[in-house]
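Chapter review: from sequence to fold.
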Amino acid sequence: MRTEGIAEQFHQYPTVKAEVDEGYRSLANEFPDQVSAPPKKPKDDVPLGERHAWREQLRRQSSRRICVAHTNAEHQQWYPLQRYTGQRKDYADTHLAIAGLVSDRSAQRATGHKTSTELVPVRQPTC
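The token string follows.
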């Protein structure tokens, strides 16, 4: 997180918000207004009501993150990226082209949830 500059980006852009998984708990602790991590698992001796509330919070947070997880998984399923045999200098262009296609498909995919921001294709369709 530190070596990749993620924390620095949150310092520079205080209006940016992110949903993360448990692996980024320290980032959520450092930027509580910007980063949302799954709720911590309750101890074994807590009342059943609190355990059910925790599971519901976890389910809601997972529901917000699943569209991104599906898009990332779709990106990895493209054959040219699985077994790239081209020249190394061309990989970045290939990766960027596929990322654009995946992004466009994700933006056009029907969703049952209202999005907090408008999803728009990376490129405008050409006829």
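Two observations follow directly from the output. Strands lie at 18-19, 35-36. Residues 48-76 form the longest helix (29 residues).
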